[in-house]
Each structure stands twice: as structure tokens, then as C-alpha cells.
Design a protein that fits this description.
324 residues
Length: 324
């Protein structure tokens, strides 16, 4: 810990089980990323109806008998989601038992739990309303983006929980200052994720046989509206890059943030490369999953970097001290 942080009137207070709890929190983040990726597998393979319109049961059974491949894929996703539920609830209880009042990790853990419950509700809604496989109902194009936005907010809340549990200073309400400077970038990134979910759905519902065919789909008057707006995803992606560059400018001049800033730069460039590859290869399932993994990792790294720069101990907003 540096001198400026040590001179802060609010002392460093480590949580009970200081090494295990933060590690568990980051493990929960990683597990939820896997759940998100498998959810994309469910969509891309048309396995959303693998358990029928039953929820939480699968085809009316606790454990499906003689399941088909689509059932196995959907049932696996439900089991992974169940594991995530117990993990997030465990993180909530452990955080409250191990931290003092006003600890910011408590706020983030409560937000994580509420967003997880909403995630389960939205997932059940998609199944019960039949907004799966080849369904092209208008409601699907409303519920799915909301579901994806909630997923990103859930990952952000879990990431902040782990981040605040890992901090050595600047984690108590009343002892930190908050700046909104990083919020525009996060908001645009959220919109990138939402438009990405619609673009991926369009690729699944209306697969193209060639890149030329895909471009023709985007401009054909007979194409569904979702294809006409597929361009918004890469456009917002580049716009988000501009906001991220602005945030990186603040971070790169602070040596202790430089490593994370470089990581964000690398992930951002990787996402552009993966996006171009996704388009060139006509969005095969495996490429969609890799692209989504890169997006999730970029989102998590960006949330941590934004928290480091905008939620700091009192008196540190001008970079006079640094926290992890």
C-alpha cells in the first residue's frame, strides 16, 4: 500500500477469511461467464425447446429420461444456472458475515442476488412464452435484449463484489468519492451487448450462405427488420472503443493502473478482430461463443478499471493515491 493510501483517515480493514472470500467471489464470476457462454450454445444450436415449455422441470421431469441432444444441452444450462444460484446466494451470506456495515461489497452482493433472480425470471419467460428456436414473435425481440442487458449487469455486480472484497482501501460507504466519468463508456458497452444479442439472433434465424448474401440480407426490402439494423452492433462497438480510449487515457498515465489498462486495450483489439472474423466466417456457433467470451472478459476488465478510477478514497480523485 502506498504512502497516500496509508495516510487516509479510514484505515485498511481486511475481511474475515481475507484470502478465501475474494477468491470465491472471483470464482463465482467465472462460473457465471460459463453459464452465459452455454446459454449462447443453447440459442445457437436451437436447443431452447429441449425441455419443452416446462420450467423449472425439464419435459415435466426432474431429470429427463432418454433425452435427445437438444434436451441435454438445455438441461445442462439449467443445471449450471442452478449451481450459479447457490453460488451467488452463498456469496451473499458469506459477504455479510465477513464484512463490516457500509462495506461496498455488501451493496454489490445484494444487487447480484436481485439481478440473478431477475435473470431466472427472464429465462423462464422465454421458455414459457415459446420465445426459442425459430420463433420470430415480436416479443422475443423485446425480452431477449432485456435478458442480455440483465446478464451484463449481473456480471458487473458480481465483478464489483469480488473487486471490493479484494481492495485494501476505498471500500466503505462514506469514505469514498464517486465520479460518473466512466459511466458513458459502460452504458455504450451495454448497448453493444444488447445489439450483439439481436445480431446473433438474426444470424441464427436467417443464416446466410455467403458474405455477399449476408450483406444483401441487410439491405433487402423483404428482409425482417432485425437484419436491417444488424449494422448497429459494429457501429456501437467502434463508438464504445472511443469511450474506452478516453478512459484508458486517464489510466495509462497512472503507473499502477497501466497493467490493467493494457489488458483492456488488448481485449478491445481482440474483440474487433473476433468481430471481423465472425462476419467473414458467417457467424458459426463456435465463433459466436469465442466472440462472446471475449466480450465478457472485456466487460469484466472494463468494470474493474472503471471502479479503480471512479470509486476511490476521499481525496484521491485527482490521482493522489491508488487502490487495487
Amino acid at each position: 500500500m502506498n504512502t497516500a493510501a496509508a495516510s487516509h483517515p479510514f484505515p485498511v480493514v481486511r475481511v474475515k477469511g481475507q484470502s478465501l472470500l475474494p477468491r470465491f467471489a472471483w470464482t463465482v464470476v467465472g462460473w457465471n461467464v460459463l453459464v452465459v457462454l452455454w446459454g449462447a450454445v443453447v440459442r445457437a444450436t436451437g436447443s431452447g425447446a429441449g425441455c419443452g415449455n416446462h420450467w423449472p422441470l425439464c419435459n415435466g421431469q426432474v431429470i429427463p429420461q432418454s433425452p435427445q441432444m437438444t434436451t441435454l444441452i438445455e438441461f445442462t444450462h439449467r443445471m449450471m444456472t442452478g449451481g450459479a444460484t447457490f453460488a451467488v446466494l452463498g456469496l451473499l451470506v458469506w459477504t455479510f458475515r465477513s464484512t463490516a456495515r457500509r462495506h461496498l461489497a455488501r451493496v454489490a452482493a445484494v444487487a447480484s442476488t436481485l439481478l440473478l433472480l431477475n435473470e431466472a425470471f427472464l429465462g423462464a419467460l422465454l421458455v414459457k412464452l415459446g420465445y426459442v428456436v425459430q420463433n420470430q414473435s415480436p416479443g422475443r425481440f423485446i425480452v431477449l435484449p432485456i435478458h442480455l442487458a440483465n446478464t451484463l449487469l449481473l456480471l458487473a455486480a458480481l465483478t464489483l463484489t469480488a473487486h471490493f472484497l479484494s481492495r485494501e482501501a476505498g471500500f466503505m460507504r462514506g469514505s469514498v468519492e464517486f465520479s460518473w466519468s466512466g459511466m458513458p463508456g459502460l452504458l455504450v458497452m451495454l448497448l453493444v451487448g444488447v445489439t450483439g444479442s439481436l445480431a446473433a439472433l438474426g444470424d441464427t434465424l436467417f443464416p446466410a450462405t455467403s458474405l455477399r448474401d449476408a450483406v444483401a440480407q441487410d439491405f433487402a426490402a423483404s428482409s425482417m427488420w432485425i437484419l436491417h439494423y444488424r449494422w448497429t452492433h459494429p457501429a456501437l462497438g467502434f463508438a464504445a472503443g472511443l469511450f474506452i480510449i478516453g478512459l484508458l487515457y486517464l489510466a495509462i498515465n497512472r503507473p499502477r493502473h497501466r497493467a490493467l489498462a493494457n489488458t483492456v486495450i488488448g481485449l478491445l483489439l481482440l474483440q474487433y478482430a473476433l468481430g471481423l472474423a465472425d462476419i467473414a466466417l458467417l457467424a458459426p456457433t463456435w465463433m459466436q461463443i469465442i466472440h462472446l467470451l471475449g466480450a465478457d472478459l472485456l466487460w469484466i476488465a472494463l468494470v474493474v478499471l472503471t471502479a479503480r478510477l471512479t470509486i476511490v478514497p476521499v481525496g484521491c480523485t485527482e490521482g493522489t493515491c491508488w487502490v487495487k
